[in-house]
Amino acid sequence: MKTALMISFLFLGQTFNIELAINPVEQATGLMYRLQWDDSFQGMLFINKAPKQVSFWMKNTYLNLIMLYLDSNFNIVELHRPVPYDSRSIVSKTSNIQYVLELNPKYEMKVIQNWHAFKVKLEEEVAIATHNVMLYR
Hints:
Elements: E1 5-11, E2 14-21, H1 24-29, E3 43-52, E4 55-56, E5 66-70, E6 76-80, E7 90-91, E8 97-103, H2 108-113, H3 115-135
Parallel strand pairs: 2-3
Antiparallel strand pairs: 1-2, 3-8, 4-7, 5-6, 5-8
């Protein structure tokens, strides 16, 4: 199941399509049951209304991915490399996580090494998308 909202931006010659998981159903489903990464999307961003301690798991998730736990300023607080199908929880060490970015691992080096530029694009697009969502609720 794909989410209803996706953001897209050009970053270092690559178009990044990031699905947004905003409501409880989207967040509970996440990337479960997806069989493979394809060129239509590079990741999923989970958006919490306020910073909190988060917990994710990989049950029914077949994809290899990396998880970036981000604070309210889109700074990387924690990086995780979960194992597909693992039902153990990956609980954040702090309670200041507002966003979680699940990303195709093939983009890990490009994104991490250029995080400041990537987060500027991500933050801009998320601000626009979430503003538009709030207008139509």
